[in-house]
Task: structure prediction
Amino acid sequence: MGGSFTWPVTLECGDLVLRPIRYRDRREWSELRARNDTWLAPWEASNPVPGGGLPDYRQMVRSLKAQAAQATALPFVITAWTPGFKEPVIVGQLTVSSIVWGSAMMATLGYWVDQDRAGQGIAPTAVAMATDYCFRTLGLHRMEINIRPENRPSLRVVEKLGFRDEGYRPRFLHINGAWADHRTFALTAEEVPGGLLARWLETRPGQAPETPT
Result:
């Protein structure tokens, strides 16, 4: 490893907090997902095995925790300080996965955000926070994000952050019941020597809705 892998970890920027997903988040997380079912369905990962399904909440968290213990994932929930609540509420999820050490030093990032919070800059800010942590603390070299070509709002997120379009990947991931084409976007540490979050906050444009990747 090129850096120091530590988990759990919490990242903060203003009212936004990325923290580890917990078993006790089940009710809040499930209610949020249920409210966003239609919003998330077109981008939802699915199981290509006939008759196969996705893990339930506890199975998902157990798997993510195991990956974090193996230093191959950072499973965050995106939370935000909100008036009327004693602690930040869950507004989405962000997972850095497929962390590869050695000569690659890279990872893949995916996220989703509450539809009611779209257009508030949450997605690009969260992506920038996680990417900076991976580059500056873990010592990773490359971050990759894969997005369906028709997901225009998510394409705007990587555009805002300056991720490079590295091309088209036919039938790359199984999404919403079928193999779906994606475009791959990437950023390396050398491209953001002053930090991605700082660059984003300095140049933050007018806000537009973001959908999950």
